[in-house]
Amino acid sequence: MTINGQLERAEEHSSGTRTTPGKAMPAYEQIKRYVIARIEEGVWKPGGLIPSEAELVKEFGVARMTVSRALRELTTERVLTRVQGSGTYVAPQRYESTVLEIRNIADEITARGHRHSARVLTLEASDDPLALDALVLAHGPVFHSRIVHNEESEPIQYEDRYVNPRVFPDYLNQDFTVETPNHYMVRLAPIQRAEFRIYAQKPTAHVRRHLMMEIGEPCLMLWRRTWVGEQVATSVQLWHPASRFHLAGNV
Question: pTM for the complete prediction?
Fold first, then answer.
């Protein structure tokens, strides 16, 4: 099968439809879909080594930086794991379930009859290369916020968010102790689509300290990207102490 045929097959497997004529998908995104299709079809197994960058460059006939970006983004999204000096591996299998809606944490807390408060730790411009990749931007700066959300006096969520300044140019001028980032962004520009993953993992010492957790206590971490129109609007990690948080929904 030709490379174009492989990419088209991967795209069909991933989305169920082909790209709309006239809207060519970037090569790195096509490679990402191809890799995901190999994993979903069981061709590449969890924990298994995938072809090297050099092999993928030769196979697809694209620049090395294109392959590198595809693998780097899949690593950020925890689909792949890259080991220095060893290679790139399929990440260990994790089981996913669907979260039906994106809700504002302040509204959730209020609905329980409790008081929400927020403490802003960081509100800044950033040139973090992983954030640029996540927001699909060639250069920075992007906007970055870190906020701890409390229910009554107890911290229940650590929010680490990167925001596309082209979509929300006044983000750094907001008072997020009064209005949450989620509420602010949805009020200005409703979300068109989102992707997310949920992980059970140990927090960093920084996150653990701000969530007032015991050493060794696990977190539920939700990673999410949202789109406004054709642009990635925000990429966020939401950390929750497992002992104080659960997911629920109705169909």
Answer: 0.62
